[in-house]
Amino acid sequence: MTLRCAVLDDFQSIATAIADWSPLAGQVEVASFPEHFATEDELAEALAGFDIVVTLRERVPFPATLIERLPGLKLLIASGMRNSVIDYAAAERAGVTVCGTASSSTPPVELTWALLLGLARGIVTESNGLREGGPWQQTVGADLHGKRLGLLGLGKIGAKVAQVALAFGMEVVAWSQNLTEERAAEAGVKLAASKEELLATSDFVSVHLVLGERTRGLLGAAELALLKPTAYLVNTSRSGLVDQDALLAALHEGRIAGAGVDVFDVEPLPAEHPLRTAPRLLATPHLGYVSELNYRTYYGEAVEDIQAWLAGAPVRRLG
After folding, report:
1. Of 25, 80, 146, 270, whose CB has the highest number of CB atoms within 10 Å?
2. 3-state SS string over 1-59?
3. Span 218-243, mean pLDDT?
């Protein structure tokens, strides 16, 4: 009997081309879904009859209510080795094996700098002006050398962002609730006295924290009010770390120079969402993990996960 595998949120229709799925031929039939299913009802209907599901990052929640509506589901594969939107206990009760894949931290580091540099040098404004016959030179770029970068979070990604900043000749300070002076020194940066001090003194602020109860809404209206009017904020981590309404207000009122955002409360972002037209905003559609290296890893290891599960010896189990 041939099993059926659904690949969710394959927006670029690339999943079956970027990895070799041939080892599953004759055993597993693969179907790719380039559209996003926004509701549990849509998901339950689309996934009925599938034995295996490959889901992309944390875009699609798998709560108990959905898992219970998929009695045929046997294997759920998440890209990455951490997924906060899967109910592992419900999966275990339903006899669903959950596995993950490796994920590189390099692509989000690179995107962080793409956004920061794009903001600092007005790249989109200048490029559009040049293409559309607008004014020759419209902006005055913000310098990086000698300026202060404040990092909220100094984990694997934050530390790599710091390395690039140091190469630009920036002063780097970092803060998180558990960060120590020793750990900061190891990364070549200074420990900020407090979150508030970091926000008030930094020329650029970049967020690199895991979303949890202690960090949700970490930057609200009061915190954003501490930023300099010349400061830029970049968030390539999780949208829940920054209050979206407060950020919109700060941008519209010109209380900060600009923001670079790759993550949103609702994804894909609705066509009429106010962030699509907000001033001083450089926004990308959650591209932090979207790179050739990561996609080859996600889908190549998804194939390995399926092979191992078929052999009765699942690998990279989550839960």
Report:
1. 80
2. CCEEEEECCCCCCCHHHHCCCHHHCCCEEEEECCCCCCCHHHHHHHHCCCCEEEECCCC
3. 98
- Average pLDDT on 42-64 reads 96
pLDDT at 90: 98
Q: How many of the other CB atoms lie within 10 Å of CB of 264?
A: 19
**Residue 208 annotated among the catalytic residues of the structure:** no
The percentage of residues in the chain with a pLDDT greater than 70, rounded to a whole number, is: 100
- Examine the residue annotation and report whether 59 is marked as an active-site residue of this protein: no
1: confidence class by pLDDT, cuts 50, 70, 90: confident
Angle of helix 106-120 relative to helix 156-167, nearest 10 degrees?
40
What is the residue type of 142?
A: A
Q: Is the pTM of this model over 0.85?
A: yes
As a whole number of angstroms, the distance between CA 315 and CA 258 comes to 44
Domain ranges of the chain: 3-104+291-310, 106-283
pLDDT digits (tens, 9 = 90+) for 247-292: 999 999 999 999 999 999 999 999 999 999 999 999 999 999 999 9
Query: pLDDT band at residue 83, thresholds of 50, 70 and 90?
Result: very high
Tell me the CATH architecture of domain 106-283: 3-Layer(aba) Sandwich (3.40)
- 286 belongs to the catalytic site: yes
**CATH topology identical between 3-104+291-310 and 106-283:** yes
Fold of 3-104+291-310: Rossmann fold (3.40.50)
Catalytic residue (choose from 267, 273, 296, 317): 267
Q: Which is the catalytic residue, given 57, 148, 208, 238?
A: 238
pLDDT (mean) for 207-214: 94
Q: Which has the closest alpha carbon to 205: 180, 237, 183, 169? A: 237
